[in-house]
Amino acid sequence: MKASPVRQRRESPAPDLGELRAADIDERIRRIAEFVCEELTRTLELPPEHAVDPKQPPHAQGVGSIMALRLKRLCESNLLIDVDVMLILQAESISELAARLALRIGDGPATALDPESVRTDDDERVA
Fold first, then answer.
1. In a designed cystine with 81, which of 15, 59, 73, 104 is the match (CB 3.0 to 4.6 A)?
2. How far is Cα 94 from Cα 57, in angstroms, rounded to an integer?
């Protein structure tokens, strides 16, 4: 009896944040939707012919609470924005989710994940 091959799980390459910020909103949405679809397809181990459809809701494609939490963390760490898990679970489509995320990227608040945008008390004294 042959052992089945072990599948290597790799994360999909995240879109470059600098390029996303420089892109127009339509391109930003397209790149985020592509990233989310690729990540869900990979994580759910779907064959290419059954890839995640950006026009369908996440919940209709196998995204439950655990997967939504994983996607939340992935988006937060790669896009440097806060993502509400309910936004993922209640999205009418992956494209709609991508649009909502894209709108948050442009002028998002400073976070500890983005050291360039964090200001300390020492910065004010030096200025």
1. 104
2. 6
